[in-house]
Write a structure and sequence with these properties.
Blueprint: E1 2-4, H1 10-21, E2 27-29, H2 37-43, E3 51-53, E4 59-61, H3 63-74, H4 84-113, H5 121-144, H6 157-172, H7 183-193, H8 196-199, E5 226-228, H9 233-245, H10 255-263, E6 267-273, E7 276-285, E8 290-298, H11 307-316, E9 323-326, H12 333-338
Parallel strand pairs: 1-2, 8-9
Antiparallel strand pairs: 1-3, 3-4, 5-6, 6-7, 7-8
Helix pairs in contact: 1-3, 1-6, 4-5, 4-6, 6-7
This protein binds glutathione (GSH).
Glutathione (GSH) binds next to helix 3.
Length: about 350
C-alpha cells in the first residue's frame, strides 16, 4: 500500500509513524496538496493528505479512518488499549491532539493563504483560543497521568498523536504556543522524536523510510520463517490449497467462499518460507476479551519445526485479558495446544452446525 502526502502534515505523519509501529509495510510518496495539486488530483480527486492507496487500488483518506483500516489489517497488533476505561482516556487525548493539528492548520491557512487585508481578526482570535485550550487540556492531562513513550513497544496511538501534534505546533507556530508553558508536552515530544519510527518519518519535505518490523527469528533449521498478514490474493489461494490438501474438505473447496470466509475473519496469518506458504491460521476475535482459533494448518513437510506454534503465538499476541478457545477435535493436537497454555475447558459448550 502507498501513503501519499507530506510529512509536514501532522495527519500524514501520525499515519506514517503508526503504520511502522503496527508492523505494516508501505511506501511513501511525498506530494504536496498545494505545490503539486494537479499531480495529487490524479491520485485522489479530493486532494486530501493523507491519502492511502490500498493494495487493491482503493483510496482511503482522513488519518483517523486510515488508522482504523490499519488497525484492522494489523490485528492482533494494536496501538489502542484493550480496556474500555483506558480506551476512553486515550480517545480523549487523541481528540485533543487532532484539535491542536486542526486549529494550527487553520491559523497557518489563514495567515499563509489569505491576503493580509482579508484576514479576519475575530476568527484568528477564536482559533488561537481553541488551539491554546487544546494544548492546555493536554498539558493538564499529562501532568495528571503521563503517557508512556519511552520505547516503541510501549507507544500507543495517544502517544503518537500527541507527540506529532505538539511537534507540528512548535515547528509552525512557536510564538502562538510558547513551549515554556507546556513542560510535559515538551518532554513527551523529545522522548517520542528520539524513537526510530519518528526519526524514519521526520517532519518536513522528506520521504519516510519505514523502520522494518522486527525480523522473524530464524527457525531451528536455519531458514527464515515469516508470519504475514494481510494475505495477498496468491497467498489466499495457496492457503486454500494447503487446507484442501490437508483434509479441510468442502468448506475450502470454493475459492470465492474461502475468500469471503477470510474477509469476515479479523485474524488471518500465513507462514511463508522461501516464498512458499507452508502454514495458515484463521481466528475470530472481538479484539478485547474473547477469541476463537478456527483453522490452523502446517504443510506436512514442515511440521515439528515450530511453525504452528509461531502462527498461534502471533495470533494470540500479548493481551493477558484475552480468553482464547478452540476445538481440539483433530488427532494429536491436544499436546500442541497444551504446550501453548490451553487446557480442557469445564465451561465451554457448543451447538455444532451442519457439515456436509
Ligand atoms: N481530518 C483530516 C485532516 C486532513 C487535512 O486537513 N490535511 C491537509 C494537509 S495537512 C489537507 O489535505 N489540506 C488540503 C485541503 O484540505 O485542501 C485527517 O485527519 O486526515
Amino acid at each position: 500500500m502507498k501513503l501519499v502526502g507530506m510529512l509536514d502534515s501532522p495527519f500524514v505523519r501520525r499515519v506514517a509513524i503508526s503504520l511502522q509501529l503496527l508492523g505494516l509495510r508501505f511506501e511513501h510518496q511525498s506530494l504536496s496538496v498545494f505545490r503539486t495539486f494537479d499531480e495529487f488530483r490524479q491520485i485522489n480527486p479530493a486532494v486530501k493528505a493523507p491519502t492511502l492507496v490500498c493494495d487493491d487500488g482503493e483510496l482511503l483518506m482522513d488519518s483517523t479512518l486510515i488508522l482504523d483500516y490499519a488497525e484492522a489489517l494489523a490485528r492482533p497488533r494494536t496501538l489502542m488499549p484493550s480496556t474500555l476505561h483506558d480506551r476512553q482516556h486515550d480517545l480523549r487525548l487523541i481528540g485533543l491532539a487532532l484539535a491542536v493539528c486542526e486549529k494550527s492548520g487553520q491559523l497557518i491557512y489563514e495567515r499563509g493563504l489569505r491576503p493580509p487585508e482579508k484576514q479576519h481578526a475575530p476568527w484568528v482570535d477564536r482559533v488561537t483560543a481553541q488551539l491554546l485550550g487544546a494544548c492546555g487540556a493536554l498539558e493538564q492531562a499529562l501532568a495528571a497521568r503521563p503517557i508512556e513513550v519511552s520505547t516503541s513497544a510501549a507507544l500507543r496511538q495517544a502517544g503518537v498523536s500527541v507527540a506529532v501534534a505538539w511537534h507540528f505546533a512548535q515547528r509552525t507556530l512557536p510564538q502562538v504556543v510558547p513551549a515554556a508553558g507546556f513542560p510535559h508536552l515538551v518532554a513527551l515530544s523529545a522522548a517520542a522524536e528520539a524513537l526510530p519510527e519518528f526519526r524514519a518519518a521526520p517532519y518536513g519535505e522528506g520521504t519516510c523510510r519505514p523502520v522494518e518490523a522486527p525480523p522473524a527469528p530464524a527457525m531451528a533449521d536455519g531458514r527464515d520463517l515469516q508470519i504475514r498478514s494481510p494475505l495477498s490474493p496468491d497467498e489466499i489461494e495457496a492457503a486454500r490449497v494447503l487446507l484442501d490438501a490437508n483434509g479441510w474438505g468442502p468448506r475450502v473447496a470454493d475459492p470465492s467462499v474461502f475468500a469471503e470466509l477470510l474477509r469476515r475473519s479479523p485474524i488471518c496469518l500465513v507462514a511463508v518460507r522461501d516464498g512458499q506458504v507452508i502454514g495458515f491460521l484463521r481466528a475470530l476475535s472481538d479484539g478485547l476479551f474473547n477469541s476463537y482459533i478456527s483453522m490452523v494448518v502446517v504443510d506436512e513437510a514442515h511440521r515439528g519445526q515450530g511453525v504452528g506454534s509461531r502462527l498461534v503465538r502471533t495470533a494470540m499476541g500479548t493481551n493477558p485479558e484475552m480468553t482464547w478457545v478452540l476445538r481440539a477435535g483433530r488427532g494429536g493436537v491436544s499436546a500442541f495446544y497444551k504446550a501453548l497454555g490451553f487446557q480442557r475447558s469445564e465451561v465451554a459448550m457448543e451447538r455444532p452446525g451442519r457439515r456436509p
